[in-house]
Amino acid sequence: MAVMITEECINCDACAPECPVAAILADDSDRNPHEGERFYVKPESCVECVGHADTPRCAEACPTEGSIVWDLPFVVDFTDYYADGNETGAYKIREHKKKGLMLPTVKAQPFMDEITLDIRQARANVLDSF
Ligand code: SF4
Ligand code: SF4
User: Fold this and answer.
1) pLDDT digit string (tens) for 47-78?
2) Whole-model pTM?
3) Bridging pattern class, strands 40-41 and 24-25
4) Which residue of 18, 21, 40, 47 shows the fewest CB atoms closer than 10 Å?
5) DSSP H or E stretch at residue 31
6) Which residue's CA lies nearest to atom 6 of ligand 1?
7) What spatial distance separates the first Cα and last Cα of the chain, rounded to whole Å?
């Protein structure tokens, strides 16, 4: 990831159309591990809006404080974190026919390097960083 959508989400759909890489799934998607509960950011797709905007567009659009928070960078150092999250159902990483599970070892994603690990591990509200 990237960013993460929390239980604060009210399923308003303000964020998904704003994402430049279509990384956000609605609550009715069967590719969403939280189907029937809340929207979901695909960590294997989210680029933290690097190269698209100065601030994550989803967070800018979201009306609900605490609904979009930081997650860990989707890079090789955190492969185990994402693999474990996929096992426990926190994530639903895409399975590629030939490449297998699209973990950071297969394809890492850009991230905002000015956001510290402390901020990310605290799951801080994204907009509070700007
Ligand atoms: S941070 Fe940017 S790329 Fe990531 S889900 Fe939000 S809008 Fe999409
Ligand atoms: S904009 Fe915020 S509250 Fe609305 S669906 Fe997206 S994360 Fe949920």
Assistant:
1) 999 999 999 999 999 999 999 999 999 999 99
2) 0.97
3) antiparallel
4) 21
5) none
6) 58
7) 18
